[in-house]
Amino acid sequence: MWRRPVCVILFGGWDQLLQCALAAAPRRRASELKIKILTVIFLALATVLGASAQTSLPQELAPPPPLAIEGVAIVDVLRGEIVGPRTVLVVDGRIAEIGTPETIAIPAAARRVEGRGRYLMPGLIDMHVHLFNNATHRPPNEWAFPLFVANGVTGVREMAGTAGDLPTLRAWQDARAEGRLIAPRVLAAGLVVGRNAVTSVREQVIKAHAVGADLIKVFSDLPEPEWRALMDEARALGIPVCGHIPREVKLLEAAAAGQRSDEHLTQVYEACSTREALLLQARKGLSLQESDSLQSAQEPEILASFDPQLCARTATALAQTKQVQVPTLVLPYFEARGSRTDFRENPSWRNLRRDEQSRWERILKQHHVETKLASRRWEISRRIVKELHAAGVRTLAGTDTPMPLVYPGFSLHKELELLVEAGLSRADALRAATIWPAEFLGLAASAGSIAVGKRADLLLLDGNPLAEITNTQRIRAVVLDGRLLPRSDLQALLDQAPKSSRRAVASFSPPPVRQLIRKETHA
User: Fold this and answer.
1) Rounded to two decimals, what is the model's pTM?
2) Do 488 and 33 meet the contact criterion of CB atoms below 8 Å apart?
3) Of the residues 27, 182, 196, 304, which has the maximum number of CB atoms within 10 A of its CB?
C-alpha cells in the first residue's frame, strides 16, 4: 500500500499582492513589474529554504477564491473522449461541481474563466525526476520548479532521495500549504538503497521505512543476493520497490518477485535478446567497475540479438505480473538525435541554474556517443515499448530530468510524443501521464482525472490533445490546487527563473560529506 504524498508544493497567497500592484502600475510597465514581483517572491523563498528546517513559518495565507471555468470541453482520460461543453466550479482547491453551463450556479465572488473553444485536462505527472544532488552536495533542483509548472507538470515522483532530504521535502510541503512556493506536488519520494560498506541492504530498507519513504529505489549495480535480501525485507515491511532491475537479475524474475516498476527499460533489452541467459551469467561475481564495463561492452550484442517474437512473448508474460514500465524514451531519443555541440542555443538553456549548466557541459563533453549504436538503441527502444503496450503492460510517462538535454517540464511533452510514436494511442499517452500514475501511486481518488471531489490540478489548453498529442503544449492556463495561473503568469515564471536560480546557488551552504550509496550520474 502506498503512503500519502510526502510533499505537496504550490503557489498561493501572493496573487492578491500581484494583482493589486499591477492594477496600480501603468499598463506599459505591468509585464515588467509582474516579473520583478515574482522574482522577489522566489528570492525570498530561496532564503527561507536555505535556513534551518526548524525556522518558524508565517501565518497561513488566505485560500484562493472560487474558480469557474465556463463552457469548456473536458478531456475525459478514463474514456478517452471529449465531453462538453461543461462548466467546472473549483472551491477550496477541489472540483466542487461539473455540469452543463446552464445548471451551475456560479458564486458572485468566483473568478470566471472563458472556456469555450478550449480543452480542460488533468495536470501532467512526471514519474521519474531528480530533485536532489547528493553526490556533489549541490543545492536541490528548486530551479526546476517554475519549468515544471509552466509546462503543466503538476505532480512528480522523486527517484533518488536520502533520509537527509526528507526535511527539505517537508519544508517544501509547508511552503506550499502557506502559499509561498510555486512547484509541482511531489506525489512520492523514493529513497535509494544499494551498495554500502557501512550498513546492509536490510538495515537500509528498515531505516527508509522508519523515516517515511514512499518507496525503495534500486540501481543496476546491486548484486543479485543483496537485491533478493532487499526484496525480502521490503516485502515484510510492505514498502514498494521501484527503479532499475539489477544487471544480474532477469526481467521476469524481478517482476515475479514484486519489484513494482522498472525504469529506463533496464533488463528489458536483455529479456528481448536470444542471449539473455549467457549475458547475465557473465556479469555475476564482478566488481562494480568490472560489471559496468562488461555491460557496456555487451550492448552491441544485446541489440544485435533482439528478437521480436521473443520480445512479444516476454511482454505477454510481463503483463501478468502487473509490473509497470517507465521507459523514459527521451533518454535514447536525445542520445541518438540530440545536438551535443549547439545545445546552448536551446531557449531553455538560460533556465538552468549555473551549476547545472556546468554539469551538462561536462557530461556532454566527456561522454562519447557511438552514433550507430545510439541509433540502434533508439530503434529497439521504440519496438520494445510497442510490444509491451500491445501485450497490456502499463507504461507510465517519466523523463529522468534533469539529465543532459532533458529539460524539466518540456521533456515530458516530448515523452508523450515519443510514446505515441512508439505505438500508444493519444488517449493512452495522456493516461500514461495522468490517471495511470495516480492509480499506481494509490492516489486515483484525488488525482489523475477530472471529477467532483478531486484536487484542482488542471491544464486549460487551446487545442484538443486527443486529436494531436502536441496540443498538450498549447497551454492557456494552469490551475494548481485551485489557483489560476494564466499564460502571462506562466511566461513570467520562465522569464524570472534564471535570476532566482542564480541566487539560490549563492545562498546555499553545502552539507557535510556523507557516505555515498553509489556514484550518481544525476549528481
Assistant:
1) 0.85
2) no
3) 182
